[in-house]
Amino acid sequence: MSSEIATPTGLNRAAQAVPPHAWFGVSAIFHYLGPAFAILLFPVVGVLGVAWFRIATAALIFAPITKPWRTIREADAKTRWLLIGLGICLAVMNTSFYLALDKLPMSLVAAMEFVGTIGVALFGLRTKRNALALVLAVIGVFMLIDVKWASDPLGLFWAALNAALFVGYIILGHKASEGGASGGVERLGAAMAIAFVILMPIGFLEAARAFGMPFVVLAGIGVGICSSVIPYVCDQLAMSRLPRASFALLLAILPATATIIAAIVLAQIPTLQDLFGIALVMIGIALHRPPPISKQVIKQERVA
User: Fold this and answer.
1) At residue 233, what are phi and psi to the nearest 5 degrees?
2) Is 201 strand, coil or helix?
3) C-alpha distances in angstroms, 41 versus 29, 146, 216, 221, 226?
4) pTM score
5) In three state form, how does the secondary structure of 81-132 look?
6) Cβ distance 68 to 62 under 8 Å?
C-alpha cells in the first residue's frame, strides 16, 4: 500500500474510486497465489513456520499504518470482542489452511471452504433454492475428494476446520468493514496483531530456522504480503461497498481461481472429474441466497 492510500482518507477515496468488483478480483487472485508460493516453502521452513511468516509479516506491515494498540484501546467492549474473535479466526484459519494444503490439492481445499457459506445460508434462509445449492456444492466436493483422498483423514480434518473458520472470517470481516473502508482496515490491523500474538509461540521455532537464509526470509515476507496484506485489504475495500449477499455471490469465482493458480504454480493439473466437481461447487455458490440484510444495514450502505 502506498502512503497516500494507507491514510483513512486515502482508503475511503480508493474504495469509492474503483468498482468494488475490481477490488474483489485482485483479492481473488492473491487469495490463492500467496498460498501457492507458501507450499513451495513448506520443505524449507515447515508448515507452521510459513504460517508464522504470513501472520508476522501482515501484522508488522499493518502496525505503523493502522496503529492496532490505539484501535484496541479506544474500542468499546463489543468492538474488542469482535477484534479478538477475528484475530483468533485469522490465526487458526490460516494455520489449518496451510496444514490442509500440505496434504491435499489446493483446488479441493478451496472448494471445501465454500460448503460452509452455503450451509449458513440454508440455516438462515430455508428455501428449496438454498437446499439445491448445498446439495450441488456437497456433491462437487465429494467428487473432488474421490476415493484417493479417503486415506488422508487428517488433511480432510484441517480442510474442514479451515472451511468452518472461513465462514467466520466472512461474517466477522464484513462486520469489521461497517463504517467505511478506513475503519475496516484499522480493525483488520488490530485483529492481525492479535493473531500474531496467538501464533507467536506456535510457529516461531520453525520460522527461526530460516533466519540465517536471507532469500528464504524474503520469500516468507512475500508470502505474507501476497496472502494476508493484499487480499485482506482488498476484501475490506470491497466489503465496505458490497452487501454481504453480493460479496457471497462473488465468492463463486474463487474455486476456479484456486484451480488455475494451482495448475500454473504447483503443476496440480485437474482431471475432468475435478473440473466437473469444481463447476458444481461454483454453481452452488452462485445459486445460494444468503439471509436478507436488515433495512438499517441497507441504509448504512447507501450512506457509505
Assistant:
1) -65, -45
2) helix
3) 19, 27, 8, 11, 14
4) 0.77
5) HHHHHHHHHHHHHHHHHHHHHCCCCHHHHHHHHCHHHHHHHHHHCCCHHHHH
6) yes
Q: Which domain holds residue 133?
A: 3-303
Closest by CA to 12, choosing from 185, 180, 176, 177, is 180
Tell me how many domains the chain contains. 1
Burial 31-64 (b: 16+ CB within 10 A, else e): bbbbbbbbbebeeebbbbbbbbbbbbbbbebbbe
Chain-centroid distance, C-alpha 264: 21
- The residues, ordered by sequence, that sit 6+ positions from 23 with a Cβ below 8 Å of its Cβ are 15, 234, 235, 237, 238
Tell me: the pLDDT tens digits for 138-189? 788 777 766 455 568 899 899 999 999 988 888 888 788 775 555 677 888 8
The model's pLDDT over 85-144, given as tens digits with 9 standing for 90+, comes to 999 999 999 999 999 999 988 888 888 887 776 666 666 667 787 778 778 877 887 777
